[in-house]
Write a structure and sequence with these properties.
38% helix, alpha+beta, Arc Repressor Mutant, subunit A, Alpha-Beta Plaits, 4-stranded antiparallel sheet, 4 strands
Length: 154
């Protein structure tokens, strides 16, 4: 469902992206609107699919996931059913945080967060090497994360 966002919607979305855990009263005060108006607007934004979900963002190191990898996957066959099959396969893996089907190069780019290199090897053997349609795997390991943002400016 496509909706028009006005200035209040944008202020609400920006405030929630900074802190989705704030109370409705705190949100209303920060965007200069009444609490009932804020509640109605947030409900409408959720129902319209503008707000997909509200989550807590964890520090990977604090939960033992200290190794980040960007993984390029090229499939042998790229028919729709093969692409969907691979997407379903990686969707089941907790270590795969993001999966993008891309053009001009590999078929997929994955963002992976694991505890260490043996955990990455286990994932690679289980998912990539164990899948007959995976032709090529190219992995890049993060040595430093200089920016991580979930916020989309509206």
């Amino acid at each position: 469902m496509k909706i028009q966002l006005d200035d209040l919607d944008r202020r609400i979305l920006n405030a929630l992206q900074n802190n989705a855990a704030q109370t409705n009263n705190e949100l209303a005060a920060s965007v200069h609107a009444s609490p009932p108006t804020c509640l109605r607007r947030v409900k409408r934004l959720i129902e319209a699919g503008v707000i997909e979900r509200q989550v807590a963002i964890l520090a990977p190191e604090a939960v033992g996931r200290t190794l980040a990898a960007i993984v390029e996957i090229t499939l042998e066959r790229q028919g729709t059913e093969y692409l969907l099959e691979f997407e379903a396969l990686v969707a089941k893996e907790d270590e795969v945080l993001q999966c993008y089907r891309v053009s001009q190069g590999p078929d997929f780019v994955l963002i992976v967060q694991v505890s260490d290199m043996p955990a990455y090897h286990a994932l690679a053997h289980r998912v990539f090497a164990g899948h007959a349609n995976v032709r090529n795997v190219r992995s890049f390991f993060s040595v430093h994360r200089s920016k991580f943002e979930t916020r989309i400016t509206v």
